[in-house]
Amino acid sequence: MSEQAVNPRTRTVTWKDPREGASAAKKMSGLEYLRAIQRGELPAPPIAELMGFTPVEVEEGKVVFGVQPGEHHYNPIGMVHGGLAATLMDSAMGCAIHTMLPVGVGYTTLELHVNYVKGVAHDSGELFCKGEVIHLGGKVATAQGRLVDAKGNLYAHGTTTCMIFRPPGSGGAKE
């Protein structure tokens, strides 16, 4: 009999209605919105609850997320799935861009590039992903990210390109 059959694990994930946060996001600058999530005044997005990451630092042009890798993040070959790093990178870099957007302006990822340099296991300790804006234009923004442990050991690094959505007539269409 397999160990999983003898010693099963479970994980329960709960989240709040994501429409509350999405509605608030339309009325706040990106920085205000992300800080409200960090303070617990607005609900974390469901993906953060599912993956288990939390905002550690939110500043203009920079966001840091932390995560404790667990067995529930494992792939079939016994390591944390690369999707955890990619999701953290996408979130931290995109949110770094979001911190620089005014009320009513949104974004979405156009391109995500992740370089994996070290495998992650459940005993790797807490990991931190720092996203920082490289360029913020009227239509396109870019950011870079690094996934490290508490000692600064690098696990992944990458870049993103995001499309900026501005309301008609708001200006800011420079590039």
UniProtKB/TrEMBL annotation:
Keywords: Hydrolase. GO terms for molecular function: fatty acyl-CoA hydrolase activity. Residues 78-154 form the Thioesterase domain. SUPFAM superfamilies: Thioesterase/thiol ester dehydrase-isomerase. InterPro entries: ACOT13, HotDog_dom_sf, PAAI_dom, Thioestr_dom. Gene3D superfamilies: Hotdog Thioesterase (3.10.129.10). PANTHER family: ACYL-COENZYME A THIOESTERASE 13, THIOESTERASE SUPERFAMILY MEMBER-RELATED. Belongs to the thioesterase PaaI family. This is PaaI family thioesterase. It comes from Corallococcus terminator.
